[in-house]
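Standup notes, protein team

Yesterday: finished cleaning the Reichenbachiella faecimaris set.
Today: NAD-dependent epimerase/dehydratase domain-containing protein structure.
Blockers: none.

Input for NAD-dependent epimerase/dehydratase domain-containing protein:
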Amino acid sequence: MSSKVIITGATGMVGKGVLLECLDHPDIIQILSMGRSSLNMTHPKLKELIHSDFLNYTEVKNQLVGFDSCYLCMGVSAGGLKEEKYKELTYDYTLTLAKTLLALNPNMTCTYVSGEGTDSTEQGRTMWARVKGKTENDLLKLGFKQAFMFRPGAIIPLRGIKSKTKVYQFMYDYFMWLVKLIKFLAPNSVVNTTQIGQAMINVTKSGFDKKVIRPKEIIQLSNIT
């Protein structure tokens, strides 16, 4: 069954991984990448929407109609940000877009990338985890046909993908041996960008009995054929 998808954050590590898997997948016939900057790539399936105001979609609403799923991979590091600003960039941006997309595409499936350690209680001491938890909780309440919250932990970038976060890329450049060791010792705790992309596509097509998808489930979903 053919489908049309929207991806945010495709210039980032996770979003790029999802994008590449969508480009390769025969059932996905159209991809709209939304972001502040260009991907600098072309493909017959791919269209870009460069948009700077993530709290207002009035002028571009017509371009967001007719899609089956959205893969919300846009995110920022909490490092150096106060809670108010981090909440705007993480919660406000995500919920504004999700509400817009749902109103335009009532049968849409929503998939959101948060991360291991996200606090579903919204009451913990860690700021980013509380904000991510509230974002997940409110996305699940919106009324999407399906909604899934992806919580990858350690991620191995494949297919030449680099992290935009300098500290993370430094870790990948010099400490990938440690990530691979962790994967060897605990296979279900580490995923790669390809598995995340494949899992998102498969959970959209086939559904799943859990709304919060952790590394073990990501691996499981990526192996569906």
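Follow-up from PR in the comments: The two ends are 14 Å apart (CA to CA).
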